[in-house]
């Protein structure tokens, strides 16, 4: 009789434990669909959050897809194909400028500088001067996108008119820019990691400058969603932000080698040493945000960059398109 009683109690305990565990990424977990604008070591903390189970710890089942290009990512968000977009903060401003009734709100910053590097085909870092760009063929990025705007902002800072002082190529799809440079197009190109490190190892060029260092702090890549989604899913957005903050802290307190190991499943065709050098390069220039909160000074710098590029209709206050409530709670 005693044995039966213990067995029943044991079974009840197992059921209770199973129920508790199901709230940590099990069948009762809340599904969140993320659309990332590209696959890049630039987004290392996001992959750490996935691989280390930080989302699951918060009771979230996160599905990640790559929606190449800011325009496609925003279309996916606005249409409801994804719940959260990881894309440049400028896209939320574009939506706002179009008079959207359901504005897109930035709630968790992932990167705080430009993630592109200037690569020269025939020069090394010690031989490069910004004046060398004058008269050259420059393989740029899409007009209105953050890489191109931050790139032009930097060039102007060094006294170079992107439209008049060099031959600027902008008609190549983002996903094909690296391949175009590898095939011989352009003397200079803007590239993200790990592509920059790969090309250096293959002898196809040398990184001679960092647009991240040159253009200053920016809310370069941010998790954002529609205001209506936030209104209906505040708890989910908070849990999401908590997981991102855990990942940001993890990356800051672990070596590039450890981070490379964690994100390797998302870069199966990239050698470990390339991942390590890419992470190290981003850490050294302070690219990865240490907190998900958006900074007002960095936001104003973004507005300056957009204004310089002729893409800003009016200056928008941070509070209109960013909600730092979730980030502040996560940090606490």
From TrEMBL:
Highest taxon, organism lineage: Bacteria
Pfam family for this entry, one: NMT1_2
Entry keyword set: Signal
Record bears the keyword Hydrolase: no
Major location (coarse): periplasm
Subcellular location: Periplasm
Keyword Signal belongs to the record: yes
Membership in a protein family: Belongs to the bacterial solute-binding protein SsuA/TauA family.
Name by which UniProt lists this protein: ABC transporter substrate-binding protein
């Amino acid at each position: 009789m005693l044995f039966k009683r213990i067995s029943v109690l044991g079974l009840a305990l197992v059921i209770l434990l199973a129920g508790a565990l199901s709230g940590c990424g099990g069948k009762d977990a809340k599904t969140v669909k993320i659309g990332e604008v590209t696959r890049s070591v630039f987004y290392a903390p996001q992959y750490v959050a996935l691989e280390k189970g930080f989302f699951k710890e918060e009771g979230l089942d996160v599905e990640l897809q790559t929606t190449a290009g800011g325009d496609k990512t925003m279309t996916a968000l606005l249409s409801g194909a994804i719940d959260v977009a990881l894309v440049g903060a400028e896209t939320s401003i574009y939506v706002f400028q179009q008079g959207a009734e359901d504005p897109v709100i930035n709630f968790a910053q992932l990167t705080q500088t430009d993630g592109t590097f200037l690569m020269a085909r025939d020069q090394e870092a010690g031989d490069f001067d910004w004046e060398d760009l004058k008269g050259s063929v420059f393989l740029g990025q899409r007009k209105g996108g953050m890489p191109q705007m931050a790139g032009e902002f930097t060039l102007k800072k060094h006294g170079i008119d992107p439209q008049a002082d060099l031959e600027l190529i902008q008609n190549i799809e983002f996903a094909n820019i690296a391949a175009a440079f590898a095939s011989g197009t352009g003397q200079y190109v803007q590239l993200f990691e790990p592509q920059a490190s790969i090309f250096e190892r293959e002898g196809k060029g040398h990184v001679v400058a960092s647009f991240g260092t040159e253009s200053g702090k920016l809310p370069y890549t941010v998790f954002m969603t529609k205001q209506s989604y936030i209104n209906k899913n505040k708890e989910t957005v908070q849990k999401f932000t908590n997981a991102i903050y855990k990942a940001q802290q993890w990356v800051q307190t672990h070596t590039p080698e450890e981070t490379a190991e964690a994100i390797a499943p998302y870069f199966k065709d990239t050698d470990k040493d390339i991942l390590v050098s890419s992470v190290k390069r981003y850490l050294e220039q302070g690219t990865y945000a240490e907190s998900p909160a958006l900074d007002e000074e960095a936001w104003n710098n973004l507005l300056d960059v957009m204004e310089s590029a002729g893409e800003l209709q009016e200056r928008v206050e941070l509070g209109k398109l960013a909600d730092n409530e979730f980030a502040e709670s996560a940090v606490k």
